[in-house]
């Protein structure tokens, strides 16, 4: 009797999406596993629907990323006060579609992981953290080496000036950031946020036009226009 190999059951998952480099690299890594399918990206946005709740990136720019990647995005309006409640509602809806896992791009902030694991446990979802406890410089090098391209779209003015806005994530960026004191290379303390516009997860690269720089609530933001 010939040996018959039974195919492993496909696992459906979502990716918690910020539009930045950690989200993109986490998604890319998990996509290499053929037994996992990414059903959607999940992004929590401000109550007016204009910006990402966590990173302040335009919600429309995140939609353009999803369109270019070819994975639908779910955007849910929320305040900081009811963030967890709304996030759990999204997960509960996804569970009804047989989605059983969620991808998160945290590197080593334990309180973030504790929150992720608690929320996932309370909603019956398994968390996947592909980047956890990995060395920051190596993560940036992997990101660059894989062919991703991203620019700085926001900085905390307490750490980085507006001159960093619009810079590409490349080897020079890594070297320049390493020369500064008390700056996390991946911006895990909120020093900067990125917008990924090209790379192996994209079907088509996004074209970026840089606009004005604005200071809001001690953070610098770069206005950008994006086309596919």
Written description of the protein model:
- With 228 residues, the protein is of the alpha/beta class.
- The protein has one domain: Rossmann fold.
- It is 29% helix and 27% strand.
- The protein has a five-stranded parallel β-sheet with strand order 3-2-1-4-5.
- The termini are far apart.
Please give a handful of descriptors for the protein shown:
single chain, 228 residues, alpha/beta, Rossmann fold, five-stranded parallel sheet, four-stranded antiparallel sheet, 6 helices, disordered N terminus
Task: Please summarize what this structure is.
This protein is of the alpha/beta class and 228 residues long. The chain has helices at residues 21-31, 59-69, 83-95, 110-123, 136-145, 171-178, and strands at residues 11-16, 36-45, 73-77, 101-103, 126-128, 149-156, 192-198, 207-216, 219-227. The protein has one domain (11-227): Rossmann fold.
CATH superfamily: HUPs
Shape: globular
Which fold name fills CATH's third level, the topology? Rossmann fold
Work out the count of structural domains: 1
Which strand order spans the largest sheet, edge to edge or round the barrel?
3-2-1-4-5
Tell me the name of the CATH class.
Answer: Alpha Beta
